[in-house]
Q: What sequence folds into this?
């Protein structure tokens, strides 16, 4: 119970719904879906470095999309059969926060699309 209270104090209500309750922000509503800034995207829950702007691409889906994570050691992939679909959930390994989903329709070189909620991320802009 204390863990849940701590998360509610640390996160905004939208971040809490996404990171802790596995919700999804509305398409095209997040602050990073269209950003072209260079830098590193960190987990908004714990600050872990997860994605680089070098792998970000415009998927047209309304969420920040990346063709690769910075390290497979920093994320966890889990089967997700909620909402009558078969998807792969992307979790921050450090804090267990729900980030988004992984799809097999991305560009090269991986062919992957990490479709991540903006509110689950904080960007550290490169100077």
A:
């Amino acid at each position: 119970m204390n863990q849940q209270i701590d998360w509610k104090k640390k996160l905004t209500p939208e971040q809490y719904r996404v990171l802790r309750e596995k919700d999804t922000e509305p398409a095209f509503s997040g602050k990073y879906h269209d950003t072209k800034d260079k830098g590193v995207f960190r987990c908004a829950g714990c600050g872990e470095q997860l994605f680089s702007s070098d792998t970000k691409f415009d998927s047209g889906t309304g969420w920040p999309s990346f063709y690769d994570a910075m390290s497979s050691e920093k994320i966890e992939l889990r089967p997700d059969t909620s909402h009558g679909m078969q998807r792969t959930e992307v979790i921050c390994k450090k804090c267990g926060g729900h980030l988004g989903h992984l799809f097999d329709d991305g560009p090269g070189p991986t062919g992957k699309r990490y479709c991540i909620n903006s509110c689950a991320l904080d960007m550290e802009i490169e100077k």
Notes: Residues 2-10 form the longest helix (9 residues). The helical segments are 2-10, 13-19. The beta strands are 39-43, 49-52, 56-57, 65-66, 75-80, 87-92, 98-103, 113-116, 121-125.
